[in-house]
Amino acid sequence: MTAPELRPCPFCGETDVITIKEPLEKDGLAMVLCLNCYAEAPLNYENGGWNTRADLSQAAIATLERENYELREAVTALQGRLEIQQHNNSVLRTGNIQLQRDVRNATDPFGQD
């Protein structure tokens, strides 16, 4: 069986990819290595393996970009809420410390802090 021509790396697009293991007689598996980003994946001669990947349509890309934008917006909103919560906790701690001082001063007959 002759080896198919290897497509560029699906991760970085590099064309310098090699087969790093000979195919096994039984199942035709070999490993492919990208010499740029070192991605490694099986190459199955029967169904394509490394050479088989989804070709995303522009609509699919737009959907993924929109979802990515929405997730970034959600993270930003959560970071803002976290900052507000941290500020509120700081205010409560400060108020609690002052309240403890007030109680101590009210119950301390000598009024020492």
Task: Provide a brief overview of the structure.
By secondary structure, the chain is α+β, with helices and mostly antiparallel strands.
Tags for this model:
2 domains, 44% helix, single chain, 113 residues, 1 helix, 3 strands, alpha+beta, 3-stranded antiparallel sheet
Q: Any overview of this molecule?
A:
- This protein is an alpha+beta fold and about 110 residues long.
- It has two domains: about 1-55; about 55-113.
- It has one helix at about 60-105; strands at about 15-20, 30-35, 40-45.
- A three-stranded antiparallel beta sheet has the order 1-2-3, with no helix packed on it.
- It is elongated.
- About 5% of the residues are buried.
Q: What is the succession of H and E elements?
A: EEEH
Sheet of most strands:
3 strands, antiparallel
Shape: elongated
Reading side by side through the largest sheet, how are the strands ordered?
Answer: 1-2-3
Write the layout of secondary structure elements.
Layout lengths: L16 E3 L9 E6 L5 E5 L13 H50 L6
